[in-house]
């Protein structure tokens, strides 16, 4: 039966999203579509051809993020059941999974609705990705202490990341408002001589910092998920009993 270590998906997610940002940044700056210093992440994937690469790769990242979130949910449920935890803990894990899935959906919306085409949907997706990402991090951190056999260092590490992620998300909005960049035009290539550039640079720095923090947070999940494997999905005929072994494997 086919199987793959679950933490490989986290590694693939981190590598893919770093590659997405790096490639789109190189293309957008070389084509003079985005500022070399302190562009927003979305600015590096707003115009073709970088928007095509940005959208395609970020959709893959969205799928990998969903897989990581769902695997974490299964891990949390298995530990709760093994410890005979109350059903409220299972409900909490489901809420965490839903928040994480919405975060993944927001990432897909950012990929498919670039700011140059439909800015409202793009911003909604960005809010879902980053703000719900902070909520997901807080829920996972809480369950690490209350529901799971936690490692104290991992717990403290996640607390620090969650706090800084929250502060960075607030900084993106506040400094973005002060710079006047949230009112358009989109995309916008900033010049250091423009009024509000300092606030824009701080807002952009907070956005990149928040992305880095989320990648670090997901990397901390390797500690728990490295002991799990993902096996092939089984597809069963609905009208044939499993006792007859009429069962087919579909590779995950």
Keywords:
single chain; 252 residues; two-stranded antiparallel sheet; CWH43-like N-terminal domain-containing protein
Describe this structure in words.
The structure is a single chain. The chain is mainly α and 252 residues long. The protein has one domain. α2 runs antiparallel to α3, α3 runs antiparallel to α4 and α4 packs across α6. The C terminus is likely disordered. Pfam families: Frag1. InterPro entries: CWH43_N, DRAM/TMEM150_Autophagy_Mod.
Quick overview of this protein structure:
The chain has helices at 7-30, 50-82, 87-112, 119-146, 152-179, 197-220, 222-225, and strands at residues 3-5, 229-231, 233-236, 247-250. With 252 residues, it is mainly alpha-helical. The strands form 2 sheets. Strands 1-2 form a two-stranded antiparallel sheet. Strands 3-4 form a two-stranded antiparallel ribbon.
């Amino acid at each position: 039966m086919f199987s793959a270590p679950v933490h490989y998906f986290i590694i693939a997610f981190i590598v893919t999203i770093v590659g997405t940002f790096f490639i789109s940044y190189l293309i957008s700056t070389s084509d003079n579509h985005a500022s070399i210093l302190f562009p927003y992440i979305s600015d590096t994937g707003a115009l073709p051809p970088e928007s095509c690469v940005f959208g395609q790769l970020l959709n893959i990242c969205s799928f990998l993020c969903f897989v990581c979130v769902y695997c974490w949910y299964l891990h949390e449920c298995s530990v709760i059941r093994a410890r005979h935890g109350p059903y409220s803990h299972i409900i909490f894990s489901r809420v965490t999974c839903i928040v994480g899935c919405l975060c993944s959906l927001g990432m897909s919306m950012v990929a498919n609705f670039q700011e140059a085409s439909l800015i409202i949907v793009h911003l909604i997706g960005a809010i879902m990705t980053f703000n719900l990402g902070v909520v997901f991090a807080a829920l996972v951190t809480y369950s690490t202490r209350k529901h799971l056999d936690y490692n104290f260092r991992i717990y403290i590490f996640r607390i620090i990341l969650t706090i800084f992620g929250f502060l960075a998300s607030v900084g993106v909005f506040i400094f973005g408002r002060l710079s006047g960049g949230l009112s358009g035009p989109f995309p916008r290539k900033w010049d250091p001589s423009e009024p509000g550039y300092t606030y824009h640079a701080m807002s952009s720095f907070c956005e990149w910092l928040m992305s880095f923090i989320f990648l670090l947070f997901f990397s901390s999940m390797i500690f728990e998920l490295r002991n799990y494997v993902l096996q092939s999905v089984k597809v069963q005929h609905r009208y044939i009993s499993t006792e007859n072994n009429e069962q087919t494997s579909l590779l995950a």
